């Protein structure tokens, strides 16, 4: 690292002028220098730095080193003078004094850290100081200062670049334009979802698909959460009070969920994230709702299983969405603590937990890694025999007299659909179940359930990527992820034309920013920063954009064949890295789907083919009363009512 700011004549021979000397590992070129050494048989040998320089250009690692050095020179030079045609950079010069001051403060902070570490570790200040210098790949205080200056300059120019290109960056991040067509992008877009959830933890492992167990407290909590939502309690409030993960502090808001693949995995657990995508594959990937751009990005059109022609979308459409009757959730709470015959007090089958009533219900209905919803439908008519384990078929329902007791009046009401948390939804209605409703949040969003290794997730999609439209009464993706605060001139609002619904005319749109409905402006700033960070951070090759911007005017700003050759090699290196990232994203999405579907197929084998789950009829062992002749027969015969 040079001790003074680099001053470059970029219109002269670029390589010679800068010497490729910058922070970190250094690549230099000086043809007059030789490296001499003694080889085998005492043979004297030498190699010129020019040869080493050329060797660097023959490998991607070498070009990467060149890129790092060139990038630093370009950024530091940008603070010394304004590149032609880059008008916006003129404002950056004014911040240089602040950057130097902040960098000096950072150096003093590092010294303070070294003193503190020396005291804590019982070592010398010099030892700890050298450790800090080594971590920054510098040799003294002056080089550390220059490193901090560069880091702050880079941060400043990244912010400048975002402000100059934020609209196109947002479109690339979203991936789909308001007309449903693909956004032009240099890299893989992120297709964000805004999601909330409630987690009810389950300690039992996720690999026992038919005879898993939950504790009484877990069964009670799951039942309580579902019943509160059914009674119309605000989803966020229930999440705040009951969710057993960090999102409870934000009322269940998990922020922006994207399809980014990192080290072969999605950002969230497969059942959670792919469960939401699977739900959309069933509900939105059909008819006029289908969108090839989204299907491609979420890999819904990829092979569901290795060697299969069946797509992910086809697989889940055929599988359907499991529908758990609300009465099951109610009963789960009622029997949560029942672990012995309630009249004799004797334990059944030596108290084996798998046949506790709560676990019979858990395994039949909730211990399911595929997606489900809660409906006001009646219990399946095969509830006692265990013939069907996943209540996905409409033909398995009957019109029994399930009822709940009204909190206000104490009267028995036959239809659970009268509870405010159940709302009509065209996607779950049919001629044979025309009165069926689905558990939804206060805004009418369907509550999607799924079981993962952590427990039961109850999820709400606040904004799906399928909601890209920019109609007069819609909130497009571009509007939803605004970077303006409510009340500001740029904040999206509905128009006042006749094609706008009367109740919406002139009003501010509901967005990610005002989702919290806060009166504290700093809360809005936090959410705006979340959006900005997501857009700035979605491209792992974001720095390449800066490089391309700073080397736009190559014919006028750069000269020399050697210089242009190197810049061309860097261009090729960037293209290769981008293609590699796209391939990893595409392959990664297909891989995570296949991993998830493989789990579902194993689950299906245990639950359907092997029929290893115990039937609900086993609950009669915990009572001396026979509900039906079938109950009495099954109780007397034992059989499936006992763990084998």
**Low-pLDDT ranges:** 1-29, 83-88, 381-408
Q: N- to C-terminal separation? A: 73 Å
Q: Give the number of DSSP strands.
A: 12
The level of helicity is 40-55%
Structural class by helix and strand composition: alpha+beta
Tally of helical segments = 19
The gyration radius over C-alpha positions equals: 32 Å
The description of the largest β-sheet is: 4 strands, antiparallel
Mean pLDDT: 80
**What percentage of the residues does DSSP assign to strands (E)?**
5-15%
Shape verdict:
globular
The largest sheet has its strands arranged as 4-3-12-11
Structure description:
This protein is of the alpha+beta class. Among the domains are: 193-467 and 614-641, no CATH class; 477-534, no CATH class. It is 41% helix and 8% strand. The protein contains 19 helices and 12 strands. It has helices spanning 14-18, 49-56, 60-78, 96-121, 125-135, 141-174, 216-230, 235-242, 270-283, 292-297, 312-319, 326-334, 357-366, 477-480, 521-537, 542-550, 554-557, 561-609, 629-637, and strands at residues 34-38, 44-48, 193-201, 253-257, 322-325, 372-375, 404-405, 412-413, 422-423, 438-439, 448-452, 455-463. Strands 4-3-12-11 form a 4-stranded antiparallel β-sheet, with helices on both faces. The longest helix is centred in the C-terminal third of the chain and has 49 residues, at 561-609.
